[in-house]
């Protein structure tokens, strides 16, 4: 099986795209949803509802915005440093790092600029926290790491 490697510029480009999508979608949500309670997207499944989250995922560490902002900065600097050291990564690990960096920077920008994170995507049928594009990217990073670990284990076992 051919191994696909992503080089540093591709990793940073993907991260940049994640930040751009995240910030543009949050700015759209702020402009459109500030005066509305909610806006249906897929009726009965997804709606847009703007909330100010001053905590982390699932409202953990509520009110700890300076700590979370600092954590986001440390994670971002650590990832950037690591990317510069390794130069290229296997596809799934590269995607994981790209999504994690983009998501960390996206939510970090909110924490540093507003003092909270703008969340606006709400799943209607289940009681799940409202989230944003950066949160999706961070979850995709976890999924990519799982896929990377499974493919590494499978390639090791087949040898």
Structure description:
There is one protein chain. With 159 residues, the chain is α+β, with helices and mostly antiparallel strands. The protein has one domain. 62% of the residues lie in helices and 16% in strands. The protein is built from 4 helices and 5 strands; from the N terminus they run βαββαβαβα. A 3-stranded antiparallel sheet has the order 2-3-5. Strands 1-4 form a two-stranded antiparallel sheet. The mean pLDDT is 90.
Tell me the major beta sheet: 3 strands, antiparallel
Low-confidence stretches: none
Order of helices and strands: EHEEHEHEH
Beta-strand content estimate: 15-25%
Number of domains: 1
Count every beta strand, where a strand is a DSSP E run of 2 or more residues. 5
Separation of termini? Answer: 12 Å
Q: Number of helical runs? A: 4
Overall pLDDT confidence: 90
| Main sheet: strand order | 2-3-5
Q: Measured on Cα atoms, how large is the radius of gyration?
A: 17 Å
The coarse silhouette is globular
Please give a quick description of this structure:
By secondary structure, the chain is an alpha+beta fold. The protein is 62% helix and 16% strand. The chain has a 3-stranded antiparallel β-sheet with strand order 2-3-5. A two-stranded antiparallel sheet has the order 1-4.
Helix/strand layout:
Elements: E1 5-7, H1 8-33, E2 39-42, E3 46-53, H2 65-86, E4 88-90, H3 91-114, E5 117-123, H4 133-158
Antiparallel strand pairs: 1-4, 2-3, 3-5
What brief labels describe this structure?
5 strands, three-stranded antiparallel β-sheet, globular, 159 residues, alpha+beta, two-stranded antiparallel sheet
